[in-house]
Amino acid sequence: MCPRTTADGRRPTSDDPQGTGATYGTPSGSGKSFPLARSHGIWKMDSHAALSHAVITDTQPAITVESVTKVYPRHFHDARSLKEILTFRRARHRAPHSPLTALRDISFEVRPHEMVGIIGANGAGKSTMLKVLAGITPPTSGRVHCRGRIGSLLELGAGFQPDLSGMENIYLSASVMGVTRGTVDAALDAIIDFAGLRPFIHTPVKHYSSGMYVRLGFSIAIHLEPDLLLVDEVLSVGDTAFQVASFRRLVELRERGVAAVLVSHDLHAVEALCDRLLWLDHGEARAWGSTGEILNDYRAFIQGQGDLPELRGSAGKLVLLIPEGRVGTGEVRIEAVRILGPDGQQTQTLRPGQPMTIELNCLAQREILDADVMITAEHESLKVTMISAQHHGFTPIFPAGRSTVRIHFPRCLFSIGAYQLTTALVRRDDLFAFYDHHVRLHRFSVITPAPAGANPLLSLPLEFDLRVETR
Asked: Deepest in the core among 7, 134, 316, 387, taking most CB within 10 A?
């Protein structure tokens, strides 16, 4: 006798009696995990679930994560030399390996029409969290419940068969996602054109570059009607046109009701796209809440980091210091960046035409004679202006100790909108030799009532002249 199914073809389970989605994990006290089937990053309770959509409403979370912990065992690899193999000798001393806890007691939810970002340093557990959500790896303990079809792009070439062409892999990926051939046929041109691969669509994907792989995978994921979307760093792939198109498509999907989880080191993209953020730190949830609140704390954390890890070249020369969002040798550091309004007080809100000042509080370990001060302002991924002290005839000398650089604008020429500042102290003879480089760590907004259609990115000082020719 066939098991009972719901009207849309899903099979009810003890944990999902209505057959509305996929649940996986270890229930409290059960001591065992649910059996699952994997397909292109999509985990469903059974074949019935993989072939149908869940009914998504705004009243219930699309993704629920409850007390998820993921532990990886680390076993000693018993590597032996040829001599040991032939003489049956083995090493006598085996160092014990403690298990690695990649995630510890993580809980959050994602609602329809919502995009949640996951941020944190390398090794924080961001990609592991996405793999648990996709069902690629089950949680050691805790519970994950996903309602609807998942579209995911987690790893380069995941789900692709290298000997098949791009066209064949589109249909292969769609089939394991439970998408009908008619749906793929209708979306085929959009998938190919979005990825920009029409001249190469019949070429085996093993000949694709890494960028072509990711563009095709992302295009498939967003065009095959996902209810849930999991994306890992895709916005950093491709040229500007592809990044802008991806940005717009993600916004469209969110407005259509798709619930999405985005992992990215690009704080600007996270700020523009995400409604809420999960900040992971060494596998633990350091903070969970609104994007603005979490990013303020995260940026303050990055700026406030004290001693930065060093990396020295073969000659012993200090070449790199990299916490997230900040690069430089640290010989002279930007301790704080402040935006000052017309009254000289710190503010994050300005009005066009008013005086404004950008103030950099610096600390030099020794006297620095060759530094240039550079500032870049961006608005919606578009670089609006880049300022160099050297190009304006100013050559600062930083004595050992504390000093302050002020860049004063008699008039704020930015139009309304939110802006991100990148500030840098760099050697004048080498623009890639950073003393300190804050990448999009500072923000300000320009507000003013303005007539419709009169919101340019930049208001330039200019004069009009009309000359009438007489005959």
From this structure: 134
Strand partners, 217: none
- The CATH H-level (homologous superfamily) assignment of domain 308-446 is abc- transporter (atp binding component) like domain (2.70.50.60)
**Is pLDDT larger for residue 36 or for residue 334?**
334
CA separation, residue 185 to residues 122, 229, 351 (Å)? 39, 21, 51
Query: Per residue in 90-116, is it b (16+ CB within 10 Å) or e — as a string?
Result: eeeeeeeeeeebbbbebebbbbbbbbb
Which ranges in the chain are annotated with CATH 2.70.50.60?
Answer: 308-446
Residue 253 in tokens? 């999907």
Q: Residue 435 has which token pair?
A: 């003393």
Contact yes or no for 327/320 (Cβ under 8 A): yes
Q: Does domain 1-76+97-149+226-303 have CATH number 3.40.640.10?
A: no
Please check the confidence at residue 4 and state whether its pLDDT lies above 50: no
With a threshold of 0.70, does the pTM exceed it? no
CB of 265 within 8 A of CB of 324? yes
Tokens of 406: 């002020």
The residues with which 303 forms a beta bridge, in sequence order, are none
Q: Which residue has the tokens 């193999």?
A: 85
Q: Which two tokens stand for residue 215?
A: 């563009």
- All residues at 6 or more sequence positions from 180 whose CB lies less than 8 Å from its CB, including other chains: none
Sheet holding 141-146, edge to edge: 22-26, 141-146, 63-72, 100-110
| CA-based nearest residue to 22, from 2, 42, 5, 3 | 42
Burial of 183: CB neighbours in 10 Å, binned 0-12, 13-18, 19+: middle
* CB-based contact 414:443 (threshold 8 Å): no
**Token digits for 152?**
């995911």
Q: Higher pLDDT residue, 30 or 47?
A: 30
